[in-house]
Write a structure and sequence with these properties.
The chain is α+β, with helices and mostly antiparallel strands and 593 residues long. 33% of the residues lie in helices and 22% in strands. The strands form 7 sheets. The chain has an 8-stranded antiparallel β-sheet with strand order 7-8-9-10-17-14-13-12, covered by helices on one side. The protein has a 5-stranded mixed β-sheet with strand order 1-15-16-11-6, with no helix packed on it. A hairpin with a 3-residue loop joins strand 8 and strand 9.
Length: 593
Amino acid sequence: MHERAGTQAELADGVCPPSVLREYGILADGERGAVVDPEGRIVWLCAPRWHSDAVFSALIGGGGYFGVEPVDRWHVWGSYYEDGTLIRVSRWVTADSVIECRDALAMPGSVDRLVLLRRMRVERGEARLRLTLDPRPGFATGRVRDPRLAGDVWLADAGGLRLRLVGAPEAAWHTGSGLRGEFRLRKGEHHDLILELAERECAERLEPDRLWRATEDTWRRAVPDCSALAAPRDARHAYAVLRGLTSSSGGMVAAATTSLPERANTGRNYDYRFAWIRDQSYAGLAVAAHGPHDLLDSAVRFTAERILADGEGLHPAYDVGGGRVPRERGLPLPGYPGGNDRIGNRAAEQFQLDAFGEALQLFAAAAHHDRLTPEAEQAVTVAVDAVARNWKRPDAGLWELDERWWTQSRLSVVCGLRRVAGAFKGRTARTGADLAEAVFAETRSRCLRADGRWRRAMDDDGPEAALLTPLARGCPSADDPSSAITRRFIEDELAEDGYLYRFRRPGVPLGEAEGAFLLCGFTMALATDHLGDRTGALRWFERTRTACGPSGLFAEEYDVRQRQLRGNLPQAFVHALLLECAVRLNDASTLPP
């Protein structure tokens, strides 16, 4: 065994200082995701699944990372994704060399085993590279046990996970700071590192060429051609992000991370490593707008299973396996700057009526493509019955706030019921149509002002960008005067510098209370197009899609003044709405099927 005590200098070197969120990238295989910092270090990875404890948590102050970087500190960096994939290439330029590091989580992913691929190649000159593998399981509360070199493979126990590392037989294990080593490469040479973390011992030989070929082939088959869409490269990238966040179970996590603050030191930082029914439906609807691709089937399957299992007790969120989201609790870590760490999410116990409306729209879109399973057909009936029994109840709404009679929730349900009435026959269609008109009439009575503008809620006249979601889907219809009046009011009250905010907080100017909400910018584009203004819609689309980092990833919010991302990363529903905009703004039609 190669092991010795680490010096204080080495421990100091093991610290990864945080970067601004726009500089991070992500690797994902559907079952978990790894966050990569601008220097190419893996600083966040939960294993074996999205909602598992982190093995590398340097991103939120827990320490632990997997780094390969030039020894020469005098260098600049950059990175990019290979088209239509989450294969990420980091690029370093030193005074006399150019080095690339190609990273990916091996595909297809396995629920109980992850394989992380890293391939370094020198394009010019000679390079000396430093390796650091410092696993700290259990959000840095555990330790790695029994690290040993077996032949040319490093083995260890990392908090109950079996660790294997191929490609670093000359490195040495240091107590307190993990595996460290260096290697040299000349122009044209490459070197592979493969890290495996698994729940059980795996005898499969880790062969880099085979693993890379399988990964490339899986991405090639997973992401469809988007060349006919508006912003084809961004559309393909959005599709790749959605695929990377979607498990083999069909569940799609809202984001890969936890506790990245929406606003510094306000307590608004949450765990998004779970599958929201609403987000899942948004993603499925976006994919359905493009075609009957596999991610549509995944969304339908996961959503139908949850509705059949829980009926009117449907939770807003589940883990990607369909299990319950754990109760929220804090972690004893420093946190990302401006935030405090927590895992679990209390919103998973709320009642959110609009989740039923979005799910019904998803099922209707699947029926249009003839991709509705018998289980999903049954789920339609269950969801319609659940709406019939619960639509008058106050709910937490799209923004998961206090329970009120939110207008958006009711209009989303009306939209879903109308789509069902148009996509099905018999009792389901009749029930859906009758219920839709009853809900719409009551909502109109309670929530439509005399001047033709929709209220935020029955007891709140304020502007609300959430209303754009049902408006974009055709409820109310484009020829209903309230649609144009409401859209204009939202733009007048909640837009600044071409970006859109959710709502106003009393006494706080827009942009100071929170960042621009990117979901709303894209729904504004769709709603504007629905009302017949294609030029205005494209303006909203183009402005909103600039609010990403160099990696092309979107967070939930965007600080316009500082040009910074805010919140967890990458936010799935933002990528979903970008994809839907790219489809619809390049199509003669303005409404989903």
